[in-house]
Design a protein that fits this description.
alpha+beta; Immunoglobulin-like; Cytochrome Bc1 Complex, Chain D, domain 2; 2 domains; 6-stranded mixed barrel; two-stranded antiparallel sheet; 6 helices; binds heme C
Length: 346
């Protein structure tokens, strides 16, 4: 089921959508943003948006970008659905600017050798910025959204492509024609610098966003990528309302690790310290780095709420996906211990 159209963002918003919103849009944003950003609280850094005269520079090496302090965002290999990315962890430095009409993001990451061509067996370097497309009070699944919670992507590829894409889960990526995304990349001395921008006349105070980077040299494309957790883009305002301090985790990591065996999690999931390396469920080696705490908790309480579309991971029942993972059974303190362990995986 997809959310009602009028709840989706339109051309006036950075993430874009197919239809113009109803008059209630701004109200909706205000009301729902809190719910959307609250789950981010502990994990994410805030990326401030700098207001500039005119429009942000399209040139990624412009001093107006380089003199602005970046925020470093960790990237993790995608391992939830096969094929899993072999590359290790990384990071992307992010800067954001807003002009009279456009919002622009400057991404900078290390890459020893540029890959610009696409062809048979050749893949170009690429990067993308992911936004929730609906503002229905729930963050989409970090891996390209989930059913009923679509995402929009600003995508850049080193062969010169810039596109607006949308997705509603792994494997559902579609291009939005005339999406209005502009992008320019430059590689120099082992560093890619890319500016992505789009007209966005009306923006809320803050928006969730996430990043992904593909290394063409390593044959990365599609799900073979490194990605970040959801972050907060601070467009205006002080941030006091939407970024409460991260709550201390009540659980105990060492006890949680033992419970992973005792509760059967280790029979289905691969993670560091589990010698069995099963592949019935997703590899959760980076679960704490990638997923918001609220998502982790929901994953074990109600596995069928958001189902990772890995092979053999779910059954279709009356058009609904039902996870093969049993809901967690145990005490609250056992659940907290397991959550503490999951959050430590990063
Ligand atoms: C019978 C096998 C099985 C058992 C037992 C199991 N899981 Fe899962 N788990 C899965 C499958 C399959 C999925 C993917 C489908 C889904 O989203 O529920 C999953 C998904 C997850 C996810 C989300 C991963 C992602 O990439 O989004 C987490 C976290 C998780 N499980 C943790 C646990 C924990 C903790 C336990 C023990 C309390 C556990 N699982 C027990 C099979 C299992």
């Amino acid at each position: 089921m997809s959310p009602p159209r009028n709840r989706r963002c339109a051309a006036i918003c950075p993430q874009g959508a197919k239809k113009h919103p109803g008059r209630s849009f701004v109200f909706l944003v205000q009301r729902l943003l809190l719910a959307l950003l609250l789950p981010l609280a502990a994990a994410a850094a805030e990326i401030p948006v700098k207001r500039v005269d005119g429009e942000p520079a399209a040139d990624p090496r412009s001093p107006s970008w380089l003199k602005q302090a970046p925020v470093s965002v960790p990237l993790y290999p995608q391992a939830s659905v096969p094929p899993a990315t072999k590359a290790g962890k990384g990071s992307v430095k992010v800067r954001a600017q807003r002009g009279a009409a456009t919002l622009a993001l400057h991404l900078e990451w290390a890459d020893r050798k540029p890959a610009r061509e696409r062809g048979i067996g050749a893949f170009a370097d690429a990067a993308a910025v992911q936004w929730p497309q609906g503002l229905d009070g729930k963050l989409p699944y970090i891996g390209m959204g989930h059913r009923g919670a679509p995402v929009a992507l600003w995508s850049w590829r080193a062969d010169g492509t810039a596109e607006l894409l949308s997705a509603e889960g792994f494997g559902t990526l579609t291009a939005q024609p005339d999406g209005g995304v502009q992008a320019r990349g430059e590689w120099k001395n082992g560093v890619w610098r890319v500016v992505l921008s789009r007209v966005a006349a009306e923006m809320p105070e803050a928006l969730p966003l996430a990043f992904a980077v593909w290394n063409g040299e390593g044959a990365e494309r599609d799900g073979l990528k490194r990605l970040s957790a959801w972050q907060t883009l601070r467009i205006s305002g002080t941030g006091e309302k939407v970024t409460p301090r991260g709550t201390a985790t009540p659980g105990n990591v060492a006890r949680g690790k033992r419970l992973m065996q005792a509760k059967g999690c280790a029979a289905c999931h691969a993670y560091p310290g589990n010698p069995a390396k099963p592949a019935i469920g997703p590899d959760i080696a980076y679960a704490g780095g990638l997923h918001a705490p609220a998502y982790l908790e929901e994953s074990i309480r109600e596995p069928s709420k958001v189902v990772v579309p890995c092979k053999g991971c779910f059954a279709e029942q009356d058009g609904r996906r039902v996870s093969v993972m049993p809901p967690f059974e145990g005490s609250d303190s056992e659940r907290d211990d397991i959550l503490a362990f999951l959050k430590s995986l990063r």
